[in-house]
């Protein structure tokens, strides 16, 4: 294993990567490390949510309340994420897209799709500093899964098309980064026999 600090371990790649997972899975940590190592942009669903809040001159809490009232905000976020995926899917440059639906929305435009997860108690401990309770986290996950099913017929538990599924509780933050870095550095498009097909998402 490399002894370099993950914040300085450069990765020479042009891959477009999606990272997805439930709250507390470690997605933000991994994406931040990857973006620095790859020297590339990183966009998350949270970034788009904040962008829309600014455009509508609303606080995040106000926009959250509006999102709970209708599907308008969710669909606007997903449409922007899909547009970003379409743009970067043709760029032949490194890029990272992170959201619960990033792998679905990017589909075959993405070169590598990653799902991160961890046992519920581990994820809960990780989000304690965000002020979210166990009940709130569970309600949010159930609510999101219901919306995805209702809007797009997406079963968020369907993960066969992900290229990497990682339990981030089994490795340190650096360890998770090193696992993904190894996958990126060992990827050979000439040896790639094909990704699993991703169901089409009709927004």
UniProtKB/TrEMBL annotation:
Gene3D superfamilies: P-loop containing nucleotide triphosphate hydrolases. This is Cytidylate kinase. GO terms for molecular function: ATP binding; CMP kinase activity; dCMP kinase activity. It catalyses: CMP + ATP = CDP + ADP; dCMP + ATP = dCDP + ADP. It is found in: Cytoplasm. The keyword RNA-binding does not apply. Belongs to the cytidylate kinase family. Type 2 subfamily. Keywords: ATP-binding, Cytoplasm, Kinase, Nucleotide-binding, Transferase. GO terms for biological process: pyrimidine nucleotide metabolic process. Its EC number is 2.7.4.25. The lineage of its organism: Archaea, Methanobacteriati, Methanobacteriota, Stenosarchaea group, Halobacteria. It comes from Natronorubrum thiooxidans. InterPro entries: Cyt_kin_arch, P-loop_NTPase. ATP binds at residues 21-29. NCBIfam families: cyt_kin_arch (TIGR02173). One of its GO terms (cellular component) is cytoplasm.
């Amino acid at each position: 294993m490399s002894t370099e600090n993950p914040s300085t371990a450069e990765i020479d790649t042009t891959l477009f990567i999606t990272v997805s997972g439930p709250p507390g899975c470690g997605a933000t940590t991994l994406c931040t490390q990857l973006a620095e190592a790859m020297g590339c942009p990183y966009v998350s669903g949270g970034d788009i949510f904040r962008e829309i809040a600014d455009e509508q001159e609303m606080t995040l809490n106000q926009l959250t309340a509006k999102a709970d009232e209708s599907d308008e905000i969710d669909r606007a976020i997903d449409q922007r994420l899909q547009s970003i995926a379409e743009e970067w899917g043709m760029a032949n440059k490194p890029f990272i897209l992170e959201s619960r639906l990033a792998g679905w929305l990017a589909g075959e435009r993405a070169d590598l799709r990653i799902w991160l997860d961890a046992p519920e108690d581990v994820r809960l401990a990780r989000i304690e500093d965000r002020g979210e309770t166990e009940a709130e986290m569970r309600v949010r996950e159930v609510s999101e899964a219901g919306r995805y099913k209702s809007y797009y017929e997406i079963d968020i538990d369907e993960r066969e098309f992900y290229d990497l599924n990682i339990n981030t509780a089994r490795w340190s933050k650096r360890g998770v980064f090193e696992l993904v870095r190894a996958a990126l550095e060992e990827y050979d498009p000439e040896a790639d026999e094909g990704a699993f097909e991703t169901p089409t998402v009709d927004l």
